[in-house]
Amino acid sequence: MSTGETNRECGDESDTGQSDDDRQVTPVSGPRMLLRAEGLAVFAASVGAYYALGGPLWLFVVLALAPDVSMVGYLAGARIGSATYNAFHTLVAPVVLAAVGLWHAAPFLVWVALLWAAHIGMDRVVGYGLKYPTEFSDTHLSRLRNVDDGVSSPDIETTLH
């Protein structure tokens, strides 16, 4: 079965009438670029809110790279390492922490959540993505790099369909 047939089954071709071979991914419209732009927006909004809420510079310096401590999980192997890293590099926990901080009027929790979100946003901007349990460099953004560049591989097609 070809990629175009797979996409028709997934309903991807119905709106455009084009197969994958007819579509062009531009640097601006590619998923990787959009995820990086989203990361920049998260970073800018988080840092802006942090300073608007009076967050101290010392806390920013101390916690700027704190989520990267999660890489220690890779000492136990790629599966545990990727799970640990991903747990600290998705926006779920910082959003929950910010909500708890707002609910309890605890500015310190909100500051920590904003710095955490800023870290995640900056990681996306520079191209660090969520990890697959194969190896540290195998990320959702590295796989999208191949898609944006028009390179096709069985792993990418399996992942995307």
UniProtKB/TrEMBL annotation:
Which intervals of the chain are annotated as region Disordered? 1-25
Q: Which UniProt keywords apply?
A: Membrane, Transmembrane, Transmembrane helix
Protein name according to UniProt: DUF4260 family protein
Name the domain of life.
Archaea
Q: Where is the signal peptide?
A: none
The root-end lineage is: Archaea, Methanobacteriati, Methanobacteriota, Stenosarchaea group, Halobacteria
Enumerate the transmembrane spans: 33-51, 88-118
Ranges of compositional bias, category Basic and acidic residues: 1-11
